[in-house]
């Protein structure tokens, strides 16, 4: 199959505070984006989308597939169908809906800067950690892809999940094109993963016990659930992307989506093989548009214990269902309707792969600075004996607020002002001493 570029680079005005692709695309939401020569590439809705970013714009380019005479995938594969670009009936030119797709995929209807301010105002821990992790958005992904990807996430890490998802695409998804010598395939549909040989083949590819869950779930959705079943579970305020002319699911399914709730969607997903509370919440958050879903995995449970005093005195190493619900409810009450978005920021800050980024920004803290002023007034001749002079000492202290980084423990500013009057002359001297203590080391600076 040959490919052709449907467009040159185009740009979408978007600041890094609203979207940072270098963080968002590698923090464990989607596992198909690949970075090649400082550009990110992924197949979405039957096309290869390439992304790069500067401080003020997101730049994107599209590579569309062309019809081919040979097989779409290697012989072992079972191909699924993928959307083809629409063509104008008169000119035959393709209608490119990539702008709308990106707007939907990155959920750009939400003002991320406003959400960060809201979360920081209600949570000091978020305010302390967020400055190093701005621009993290929750992706509005295809629900089926999210479901399979997070079934793969059980007892796994981001690197291995990415490898598994790429194997699924390579062996079962339709080939779309090649970028810099690397082939790209779309994500396979349920029909492609429901064959009799799928489970055994996935085990050979290293999926382990997850192979059975994937094959069984694919079979349930392709054979026993009505068309558009996942669509019924979607948040009506966050619809799936529908390109021009597409009809995803039946009208009954779309109507049922308007009455869906987060809890109903969560409970429905729990009925599928390999889906527990955490996987269900991941799918709800990143595949069904339920911003209130808060997936609690080992990272988030550690955050809840360390920063929010959960589980004190609890000797059990496992997270019970009751505690899982309690942690989620606490974060929902703390962060509001988009609690899952806020959780993803703290989750990312807790990953080892982002440790350097987490330490790059030292959060500012407010400290009190005490300024002491002392005035010594001497009455009488300047040449008089000390005993003959009348001395009056006035001292005042003033507390001011200053910002400093987290390493500064104490800062004291002392200003001493001495005024001596005699023989018609006024002599004034001023001394300023600044004491700064960092960790166990004291530094004294004197300015006169």
Automatic annotation (TrEMBL):
It is found in: Nucleus. This is DNA-(apurinic or apyrimidinic site) lyase. Its EC number is 4.2.99.18. It catalyses: 2'-deoxyribonucleotide-(2'-deoxyribose 5'-phosphate)-2'-deoxyribonucleotide-DNA = a 3'-end 2'-deoxyribonucleotide-(2,3-dehydro-2,3-deoxyribose 5'-phosphate)-DNA + a 5'-end 5'-phospho-2'-deoxyribonucleoside-DNA + H(+). Keywords: DNA damage, DNA repair, Glycosidase, Hydrolase, Lyase, Multifunctional enzyme, Nucleus. One of its GO terms (molecular function) is 8-oxo-7,8-dihydroguanine DNA N-glycosylase activity. Belongs to the type-1 OGG1 family. It holds the Pfam family HhH-GPD.
